[in-house]
Amino acid sequence: MISDEELVRSMADGDQAAFEVFVHRYHRPLQGYLERMLQDADKAEDLVQDTFVRLLRRLQQGEIPGQIRPWLYRVALNLCRDYWRSSGYRSEMNRLAQPPEHKDTNPSIVEIYERQETRTEILQSLNSLPESQREIVILRFYQDLKLQEIAEVLDMPLSTVKTNLYNALKKLKKRLMSRNVNYVESEGTHYA
Amino acid sequence: MRDPIDKELMALEKQLNKPMAQYLTRSPRPEETQRLINRLQPEFDALKSKRENSFEWLADRKRNPPSLIRQCMVQLKTYTKTFWLASCMVFVMLTLTSASGPQDVYGSLDLYSLIVPLLVAAGMLYGFKSWNPEMRMVESVTPFPPALLLLSRFLIIVAINILLGLAGTAYLGLTVSSLRFFPFLINWLSLVLFVGGIMAYVMFWKGLKAGMALAVIAWLLVNASHDWMSQYGFVSDQAVLIVRCALLLAGLLLFAAAYRKSVTLQFAAEGERV
Question: Is the pLDDT of residue B49 over 60?
């Protein structure tokens, strides 16, 4: 598979195919990340577009980021932070208090109920974490970033990332266990 | 060995994988990705047009002659402290030996005329490593012509030797009362420039080996002829001085011709690429 860095270099050379492959590759991960961060699918879609625009403008200036994946998530995170600081954010808060409905294909009513319940529990558990811990957990579990990459995204030492992740997971475990969420030891891979 | 926190982290991640995986988000459909691409297309088109303009700018820039002085400054930094130290040591020894030896300024008894041109040739060989394939590969992507880069290294070597030689000559002038300062200076300086100029110029036409061979032959001929002439008293010191000045001028002209050739080689190479 062509690396992100190679794709972006080809994009910088004006390669249309590389541009489309890159957007296809990162649309879903960025959408998922921003949706979890913002808990607003529509706003996440806007910020996904803004993230790609930032990359293209960077390339227009003749600069190619060294590590593409951490760079993209860092830009996406900064866009989230800008949005949270914006005046429009507060007016959205009430609407976001209710998590957006999860769309799925052909689930049974019981399944929908159970998933919604679990989802709400996880969402509330994540929201109970300090911002930096929440960001680390989302990047680790849902974006499958390595700890070193997370350190680059958040611009913090690796040891701080580890400590924050450790504390966050202990809190999550305690909270999810107390709420009796389906909690089983698993070897499964992370969800992106 | 793993940190205890790493082990605990792994265990915690394993335990939480399943519950956390239940927090799903909606995956964008292919048509949504296509719509996103369409929305991003104007930005990408702007990138493509900027890139084309930047190549036009680069093409314009390439028409300007490359700067030899700037390249010399860059190349100067590539020489190590050891090189500088070794050069200084050689000149100190050369100067001290000259101070204690006979002061005949012409012919093989003049150590400066014998040794300094050889030092220049040795230094040029040292700088020749830039013709290695690996270096050429690197140089092929720099805006400087490889030939100009090599010439700049040669000029640095010549300049170093001349500067150290001038310092040594100044020392000799102050400490050795019998030294005929100006003839001594012109003697070695003309040979350095003549031999260095031949080597630089011939190298651009026929390669390093030919350049080196001709330079050594020139060095031998000049020294031997002066030995022979001074031995039999055929020519006056004044005539020898004029010949030396002519050699000095010839050396400068050869360096100028080598510079022109190095730039021409680059433009020719660009022409072939186009």
Answer: yes
Predicted confidence (pLDDT) per residue in B62-120, tens digit: 445 556 777 677 677 767 788 888 889 988 988 888 877 655 555 455 788 888 888 88
Q: Is B172 a residue whose pLDDT tops 80? A: yes
- Per-residue buried b or exposed e for B176-198, using 16+ beta carbons within 10 Å of the residue's own CB: beebeeebbbbbbbbbbbbbbbb
Residue A21 contacts B where some CB pair is shorter than 8 Å: no
CA-to-CA distance for A113 and B270, rounded, in angstroms? 70
Q: Are A115 and A107 in contact (CB under 8 A)?
A: yes
Mean pLDDT in each 10-residue stretch from start to end of chain A (192 residues)?
82 87 92 88 91 93 87 91 75 54 52 65 85 90 87 88 91 79 47 42
Q: B43 or B78: which carries more pLDDT confidence?
A: B43
CB A178 within 8 A of CB B21: no
User: Hey, of A7, A13, A25, A27, which one would you mutate to test binding to chain B, going by the most B CBs within 10 A of its CB?
Assistant: A27
Window A:47-76, CB contacts with B under 8 Å = 48-49, 52-53, 56-57, 59-60, 62
- Among A73, A61, A49, A55, smallest CA distance to A8 is for A55
Whether ipTM > 0.85 holds is no
Rounded to a whole number of angstroms, the distance between the first and last alpha carbons of chain B is 57
The per-residue DSSP string of chain A comes to ---HHHHHHHHHTT-HHHHHHHHHHHHHHHHHHHHHHHS-HHHHHHHHHHHHHHHHHHHHTT---SSHHHHHHHHHHHHHHHHHHSHHHHHHHHHHHSPPPPP-SS--HHHHHHHHHHHHHHHHHHHHS-HHHHHHHHHHHTS---HHHHHHHHT--HHHHHHHHHHHHHHHHHHHHHTT-------PPPP-
| Number of CB atoms found within 10 A of residue B200's CB | 27
Least confident of B5-14, B140-149, B206-215, B218-227: B140-149
Give the N- to C-terminal CA distance of chain A in Å, as an integer: 19
Q: Give pTM, 2 decimals.
A: 0.46
- Please check whether residue A105 touches B, CB under 8 A: no
Chain centroid, CA A40 distance in Å: 12
Q: Which of B28, B44, B51 sits opposite A27 (nearest CB)?
A: B28
